[in-house]
Amino acid sequence: MRTVTNYFLVNLSAADLLMSVLNCIFNFIYMLHSDWPFGSIYCTISNFMANVTIAASVFTLMAISFDRYIAIVRPLKPRMTKSEARNFIIFIWASSMLLALPCLLYSTTVSIKYKNNEIRRGCFLLWPDGETSISYREYV
Fold first, then answer.
1. pLDDT per residue over 39-93, tens digit each?
2. Sign of the C-alpha dihedral, residues 38, 40, 42, 44?
3. Can you tell me the distance from the alpha carbon of 68 to that of 31, in angstroms, rounded to the nearest whole number?
4. I want to staple 38 with a disulfide (CB 3.0 to 4.6 A). Which of 42, 102, 131, 138 is the partner?
């Protein structure tokens, strides 16, 4: 059972599990109540982990596709070794964290006061050049 494909499948499962445990439940509560009760630190962690796990899932699927492509197109060529697969997985997580780095820098909570004196907090990315809907850096 310790094949290169299974290493990638375990990595994909781990990324999806981290997404569901560290992000989905909290964002469901946030969307349900329109309030972020988990604090500013977990806002940063949640946004960061969401981006890391999604990128890791996508990169892992790409690695599986690449491995399958090589196996089909060049059947006589040596396939990826287990140690190469482990190194590739480390590279996947490192590059995913690098791509999610702006979430660590720009995630914040903002309190909004409504007409009935109710205060709700929001968790989102606040870019240096403006809010998400008008930020140029969000698209770069």
1. 999 999 999 999 999 999 999 999 999 999 998 999 888 888 899 999 999 999 9
2. positive
3. 39
4. 42
Name residue 125's beta-bridge partners. 107
Q: What share of the chain is helix, strand, coil (3-state, %, to 5)?
A: 65, 10, 25
Q: What's the residue count for the chain? A: 140
Cβ atoms within 10 Å of 8's Cβ, excluding its own: 25
CB 104 within 8 A of CB 44: yes
Token pair listed for 35: 């309030």
Banded model confidence at residue 96, pLDDT cuts 50, 70, 90: very high
- Residue 124, amino acid: F
Q: Where are the alpha helices (DSSP H) in 20-116?
A: 25-33, 39-73, 82-99, 101-106
Q: Which two tokens stand for residue 39?
A: 């604090």
CA nearest to 81, candidates 72, 70, 96:
70
Q: What is the pLDDT of residues 110-127, one digit of tens each?
A: 888 888 888 989 988 887
Write out the two tokens for 133: 């809907």
